[in-house]
Amino acid sequence: MDIPRGTYGFRFAEDQELQLSVLFAAGCDSITAPSYHWDGLERTDGPLLLFQYTLSGEGMYESGDRIHRVSAGQAFLAEIPGPHRYYYHPESKEPWEFLFLLFRPNLILPHWRKFLREAGEVPHLPADSAPVRLLRMMVIDAGAGRISDPLIASSCVYQFVTELARMQITTLRDRENWPENVKQSAEFIELNYSRMISIDQLSEHVSLSKYHLIRRFSASTGLTPGAYLTRVRTEKAMELLRGTSLSVEAIAERLGYSSGSYFIKAFRSLTGLTPGEFRSGGESLAYRKLFFD
Question: Which PROSITE patterns match (predicted)?
Answer without folding.
Answer: HTH_ARAC_FAMILY_2 (PS01124), PROKAR_LIPOPROTEIN (PS51257)
